[in-house]
Specification:
6-stranded parallel beta sheet, binds ligand PTJ, 11 helices, single chain, alpha/beta, Rossmann fold, 249 residues, two-stranded antiparallel sheet, 51% helix
Length: 249
């Protein structure tokens, strides 16, 4: 890999891109993951490559949902595993959530490689290998989930995907927290909490909020959830992308 100078104006973006390339080389990320990363980069560029205020509100609401949940699960695909493996383990620790590998382009080799990769980053228990249940109404491989994981979860964090699983999980009555840089994507549009931000900023941000809220009462957590408005968050992100400025409060 070419050395990227510390002062390169697009350094963060290039480092992130190389992490996806490394993920492909390591058998963690699918080749389609390269294309997904390119789409994400374009939206991130238009968002100003920063966490906009409404995305920060969304991460706080997501943290509150995870802390209120009986059984929260963080779903992990090949892009997410390449970009934020240690950060996901920290979020799971901060919220008591399970980690579960769930892939669109599923192969058992790639599931095993991601489970191993997460273990190398400190995870003790990673679900997704049993795949002994199915999400109703989905024909493709992403329907395969663990019976004691995503299948029975009440709150699921769903980062970077194309939307039909998001819709199917919503139909199962689960609360979905979505991370996606495209506010118009089906998954962002379906989510109870759409976090329109780069996964590399969003996951540490949810962890920070979860730690701040660790001693909050159920009433206080409910108030954080109730104060969040998903439509406003989606409109704010679209406004930032279209006009480069935030909406007036
Ligand atoms: O590992 P697998 O087999 O489960 O496959 C994972 C990918 C991501 C390849 C698969 O789910 C896919 O093809 O997704 P899509 O349809 O390309 O959708 C990815 C969405 O994530 C798009 O809306 C992108 O804008 C968004 N995205 C890409 N990179 C990031 C992102 N959102 C947040 N942070 C990113 N870094």
């Amino acid at each position: 890999m070419t050395e990227i100078p510390e002062d390169h104006p697009r350094r963060d973006s290039l480092v992130t891109r190389h992490r996806i390339e490394d993920g492909v080389d390591a058998g963690i990320t699918s080749r389609q993951g390269l294309i997904a990363q390119g789409r994400g980069e374009a939206y991130d560029y238009l968002l100003g490559e920063e966490t906009i205020p409404s995305a920060d509100d969304a991460t706080r609401a997501a943290a509150a949902h995870l802390l209120l949940a009986d059984h929260p699960v963080l779903s992990v695909n090949g892009n997410v595993a390449a970009l934020v493996p240690g950060e996901l383990v920290e979020l799971a620790d901060a919220t008591g959530a399970d980690l579960e590998v769930n892939l669109f382009n599923r192969t058992e080799e790639r599931v095993d490689a991601i489970v191993e990769h997460l273990r190398e980053h400190g995870a003790t228990d990673v679900k997704g290998q049993a795949a002994d249940a199915r999400i109703p109404g989905l024909e493709h491989e992403r329907a395969k989930v663990d019976a004691d994981g995503i299948y029975e979860a009440d709150v699921v964090l769903v980062p970077l995907e194309d939307g039909d699983r998001a819709e199917a999980l919503a139909e199962m009555g689960k609360t979905e927290l979505v991370v996606d840089l495209n506010p118009l994507s089906r998954s962002a549009q379906t989510a109870a909490v759409p976090i329109v931000d780069n996964i590399v900023r969003a996951v540490p941000n949810v962890t920070r909020h979860a730690r701040e809220l660790a001693d909050a009462s159920r009433e206080e957590l409910d108030a954080v959830v109730d104060a969040f408005d998903r439509e406003t968050a989606l409109e704010d992100a679209e406004q930032r992308i279209r006009d480069g400025v935030d909406r007036e409060a």
